[in-house]
Amino acid sequence: MDLQQRSDDLVRTRFADQVVGGGEHAGQRWVEVKREKIVEVLRTLRDECGFDMLMDLTATDWLDKGAPERFAVVYQLFSVTAGQYFRVKAWVPEVEPEIDTVSELWKAAPFAEREGFDMFGIRFRGHSDLKRILLPDHYPGFPLRKDYPLIGHGERYDFPKHIQRQER
């Protein structure tokens, strides 16, 4: 049995009350879990299955798509020794979109969690420096949410201009 299958089986057995779905596509397995025990799930995958690298942490907005919750925080894990990937999706509600930070597990997590906060408005509980990373602190919205207007809220015209072009 390969590492992905063993990891999937381990999560589904040990955290049966947390698993809400999963699957496989193009040779990569994933498991979908509730947010309540995300740190324990990911710690188990790191310590017992060897997924020692957090390749990516992002979010997706499932507005009006019939998903368990509006948002999914997606953790893309990699085992350096086995050369295999495994994906974990943790569902986060629209009301109080919060999930525990995993910055104690991987040094790559804090930066990616800040981006998830900045673009989607998902709060990562326990994060040591959760603030906007790409947009100004006063920015009013979260541009990667599906209900964000395609043309924005007029922010293109509201940003302060720091460099003045000189006329020739």
Summarize the structure.
The chain is α/β, with parallel strands linked by helices and 168 residues long. It has helices at 3-14, 38-49, 109-120, 155-158, and strands at 19-25, 28-34, 53-61, 71-79, 84-92, 98-100, 123-125. It has one domain: NADH:ubiquinone oxidoreductase Nqo5 subunit (Beta Polymerase, domain 2).
Output the keywords.
single chain, 168 residues, alpha/beta, Beta Polymerase, domain 2, five-stranded mixed β-sheet
Could you characterize what this model shows?
By secondary structure, the protein is α/β, with parallel strands linked by helices. It has a single domain (3-150), classed as Beta Polymerase, domain 2 (2-Layer Sandwich), CATH 3.30.460. Helix content is 24%, strand content 28%. The chain contains 4 helices and 7 strands. The strands form 2 sheets. A 5-stranded mixed β-sheet has the order 1-2-5-4-3. A hairpin with a 4-residue loop joins β4 and β5 (84-92). α1 packs antiparallel against α2 (38-49). It starts with a helix and ends in a 10-residue tail after the last helix. The mean pLDDT is 92.
The rough form would be described as elongated
Distance N to C terminus: 69 Å
Domain module count: 1
Q: How much helical structure, as a percent, in the residues?
A: 10-25%
Quickly name the level 1 CATH class: Alpha Beta
Mean pLDDT: 92
Q: How many helices?
A: 4
Using the coordinates shown, work out and report the CATH topology: Beta Polymerase, domain 2
CATH architecture: 2-Layer Sandwich
Question: Which structural class do you get from the secondary structure elements?
Answer: alpha/beta
**Which sheet architecture does the biggest sheet show?**
5 strands, mixed
Strand order of the largest sheet: 1-2-5-4-3
Low-confidence stretches: none
Q: Helices and strands, in N-to-C order?
A: HEEHEEEEHEH
CATH superfamily: NADH:ubiquinone oxidoreductase Nqo5 subunit
* Estimated radius of gyration: 18 Å
Count of DSSP strands: 7
- Beta percentage is 25-35%
